[in-house]
Amino acid sequence: NLRRLERYLTMTWASGAQPVVVLSKADVCENIEGMVAEVRGIAREVPIHVVSVVSEEGLDSLAAYLRYGQTIALLGSSGVGKSTLINFFVGFQRQRVKKVREQDDRGQHATRHRELILLPQGGLLLDTPGMRELQLWEGGEGVQATFADIEELARHCFFGDCQHESEPRCAVRTEQTEGRLDSERLASYLKLQSELKHFRIKHDELARRLEKQKTKKLHHLVKERAKEKRS
Question: What pTM did the predictor assign?
Answer without folding.
Answer: 0.68
